[in-house]
Amino acid sequence: MERSPKRHLDFLDPLRGFAILLVFLYHALGAAYGMDQLSWGTWTRDFNVSGSFLLLFPATLGWMGVAVFFVISGFCIHLSFSRQQDWSLFVQRRFYRIYPPYLLVLLFFAVIYPLSRLHFNNGYDFAQIISHAFLIHNLDYRSHFGLNPSFWSVAVEVQLYALYPVVLALAGRLGWKRTMILLAAIEISLRVVESLLGGLYNASLPRFLNGSPLFYWFSWSSGVYLAERYLKGEAIQLPRLTISVLSVAVLACYFLRPISSLTFPSSRC
Asked: What is the CA radius of gyration of the chain?
């Protein structure tokens, strides 16, 4: 039995609050200690840090709140579109909800805020503002964290919105489960290569790959898939054993460098 999408889903608010708290603690740790992660040894995390930092170790996992936000984003996007399946209206709503406030904040950091203010006396400054204005700054390492480091997620989110019709087209052709397997293969393959490059050669994929929406496509689309199941009235709660296994997997990915890039997709569950 399919259910009609509600305007407001109460269970999302605690999830958003939890994700906000995680991200806040993560950044607070970085501000206090000048580092927000345990650094890498050869293959595992290096615990040669102060005792107080180790005591606050759980806060280093706070970035997982971003993974939660990505799933919620995919979930809400699919529910929103399901209410009125009009692509023109969908694009207009997304644009006016995101771009005007984003542009206002972007201009603040680009021309007013002293620590990131651009002086436009070289090509680099113009490239920064243009790439940010067109929301493609996440595809180049020089601008990925430029102006305001948090802007990378806005660019990735918008690009994932652009890929949303592709997800629906694939689901219509292949079915939801096969589509999710395909998207998982794309994201996990990129992340495995990223982890191996880091562990073996202390290198990484080009930014246009590890900063692209493909690197987050499965994680974000998991929210779309959960929304589809919700709309059909299907159970979306994971068994306790599965949650326990996933928790162990998240910690293993966090501590072992060869699989470290898989922490993001595993933590989104």
From this structure: 20
Tell me which residue of 157, 161, 177, 191 sits closest to 266, measured CA to CA: 191
Phi then psi dihedrals of residue 237, to 5 deg: -90, 135
Asked if residues 183 and 245 have their Cβ atoms less than 8 Å apart, the reply is: no
Q: What is the pLDDT of residues 9-25, one digit of tens each?
A: 777 888 888 888 988 99
Which residue in this structure is represented by tokens 């280093």?
60
3-state secondary structure the chain: CCCCCCCCCCCHHHHHHHHHHHHHHHHHHHHHHCCCCCCECCCEECCCCCHHHHHCHHHHHCCHHHHHHHHHHHHHHHHHHHHCCCHHHHHHHHHHHHHHHHHHHHHHHHHCCCCCCCCCCCHHHHHHHHHHHCCCHHHCCCCCCCCCCCHHHHHHHHHHHHHHHHHHHHHHHHCHHHHHHHHHHHHHHHHHHHHHHHHHHCCCCCHHHHCCHHHCHHHHHHHHHHHHHHHCCCCCCCCHHHHHHHHHHHHHHHHEHHHHHHHHHHHCC
Residue 268 is predicted with a pLDDT of 55
Candidate from 36-45, 87-96, 143-152 with smallest mean pLDDT: 36-45
